[in-house]
Amino acid sequence: MAGKFFHKPNEEEQKRVPPGQHLAKGFPVLTYGETPQVSTEEWEFRVWGLAKPAILSWSDLIALPQHEFTADFHCVTHWTKLDVKWTGIKVTDFMNLIEVYPQAVHVMEHCYGGYTTNISIEDFVREDNFFAIKLFGEPLTTEHGGPLRLVVPHLYAWKSAKWINGLEFLNEEELGFWELNGYHRRGEPWQQERYSSGLGL
């Protein structure tokens, strides 16, 4: 895998790179299916399930406090990019904007294009998770999930759903697209939780 697009981490970098990963020289783009094209004017974000139903516009979202984030990004396909710089909105700030019922313990992320991925409330509501609107100081491009993607740095990147447009709050775990197709339910990189077999392959 090392070569033109990837390289092995040096001794210092190894402390930050999970097992089985190489470092990406660029920022690869991996997408299943067609790339949705959604303008901020038509974009909307829905909340439902075990939460008070809500529909947010783009202006509702960007009225929330925006922060700069630097986070490492780990893809299940064996590459990592260190020190990715984003601008976005903390998940914890977003949660203050909506009302979630106490019995909600899991979340299904819904996206333009029909993609879904599941995440527990515990993994979702963390101070270091955020909704990204910029990447390296520029508006988030469509290929990288713009206008909005979730970023969950402590899990593999398929949990950081691109083109996200809704959260469904659930009282039990349900599996999303890749999870139904054999990926691990949680996806923790340092444990190599890549596939549902739990073998860390």
Tell me what you see in this structure.
It is a single chain. It is built from 4 helices and 12 strands, in the order E-E-E-E-H-E-E-H-E-E-H-E-E-E-E-H. The protein is mainly beta and 201 residues long. Strands 1, 2, 5, 6, 9, 10 and 11 form a 7-stranded mixed sheet that branches. Strands 4-3-12-7-8 form a 5-stranded mixed sheet. The longest helix has 5 residues, at 58-62. It is 9% helix and 32% strand. The protein has helices at 58-62, 91-95, 121-124, 177-180, and strands spanning 6-7, 22-24, 44-49, 54-57, 67-75, 79-90, 106-111, 116-120, 130-135, 138-139, 149-151, 164-170.
Main β-sheet: number of strands, strand sense, barrel status? 7 strands, mixed
Low-confidence runs: none
Task: Please identify the structural class as seen in this structure.
Answer: mainly beta
- Label the overall shape: globular
How many angstroms does the end-to-end distance come to? 16 Å
Q: Helical content, roughly?
A: under 10%
Share of residues in strands: 25-35%
Provide a count of the helices.
4
Q: Count the strands? A: 12
Mean pLDDT: 92
H and E string: EEEEHEEHEEHEEEEH
Which value, in Å, is the CA radius of gyration? Answer: 17 Å
